[in-house]
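YM 10:42: Phosphate transport system permease protein sequence, as discussed on the call
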Amino acid sequence: MTVAHIQDPEPLPDFNPGRKGDRFFAGLATGAGVIILATLAGVALFLIVKAWPAITADGTQIPGGEGLVKYIWPLAFGTIVASTIAIVIAVPLAVSVALFISHIAPPRLAQPLSYIVDLLAAIPSVIYGLWGVAVLGPASVGLQEWLADNVGWLPFFKGPASATGRTMLVAGVVLAVMILPIVTSVTRSVFVQTPRRLQEGALALGATRWETIKLTVLPFGRSAMISASMLGLGRALGETMAVAIVLSVSGDVTFNLISSGNPSTIAAHIALDFPESSGVKVNALIAAGLVLFAVTLLVNTAARKVINRQIRI
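YM 10:58: structure's back
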């Protein structure tokens, strides 16, 4: 049996600055890159300039009267906690759903399911917030009471459990549902591009379906899973209305996820307080936004380094 020789695809022609089309395309691409960088720099400059009066103001002028750091710290803490809960819940579930759609479900089921998952991303955040406060919160009261009674020795479930269910745990679950379609769509689009020869080779060597997925699909899509997780994390960090509707805020810094006293998030706090603020209070809110901007930038930079390391490996 002979094996037909597969010719390598012809390489793309080199860039020729003498061609009008190449010059136009190069200028267009460069201009787009410059616009993105200029926009990012403009946003950062705006936040720094508007936050500077709060940074240099006396601590008694900041809301709470204890200084800017103590004003922003509970908000930053709540933002990180809510986003962490969302990522911990959403990423394993999203990867599992993506694998089911791309490699396990029959085509007649995979196609409608992929449409449904994509439609979840189109639901407005306020709808998720109403669902969380009217359905998920009350439904989770029994579970939160059980957690307080049985695993209350953990600081996360110390209790007493909230009677309304408007807790940080519920807010994190709502965020997880919101970022689920983003993570699922990105990972699924990469999983389906796993080379067939790798999967067929693993099957030919006697690997089971799960072993084939573990040895070929997951390594191939590792960088996509990280990228999708960071996209979902960015959505969770900046989510406003859903958290503002669901969360019962007290301003306390606590790891207790099921009590009625919870820190707010930066985005939700800005949305709720900005219309009624003036003077230095507005600058303090913008300073909180600057912290959120910096956290998001650091997270995405760290994710990019991890992805580049995975690509080199």
